[in-house]
Structure to design on (95 residues):
């Protein structure tokens, strides 16, 4: 199972570079972490077993200081994008 992510600054209409992202397993242990590149991406955040995980984003938003999602990962590749602005945030299961 592999996991990638992409953070987009929808307020400014550009990728969000320099965002710290962490992945924790069900027991709360840190499995992987990284920082988004100039394109707002972490192409290979983790290569781990299927299961329930928490992906935690630390954006440089004046309001959202931490965005945490609990996700269920099965076999294959998963992509979890985050769209963020000063006023809202959203995510979806990408491809």
């Amino acid at each position: 199972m592999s996991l990638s992510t992409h953070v987009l600054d929808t307020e400014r209409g550009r990728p969000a570079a320099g965002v710290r992202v962490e992945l924790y397993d069900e027991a709360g242990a840190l499995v992987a972490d990284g920082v988004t590149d100039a394109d707002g991406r972490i192409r290979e955040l983790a290569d781990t077993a299927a299961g329930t995980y928490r992906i935690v984003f630390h954006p440089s938003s004046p309001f959202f200081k931490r965005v945490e999602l609990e996700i269920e990962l099965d076999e294959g590749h998963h992509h979890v994008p985050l769209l963020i602005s000063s006023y809202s945030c959203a995510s979806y299961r990408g491809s």
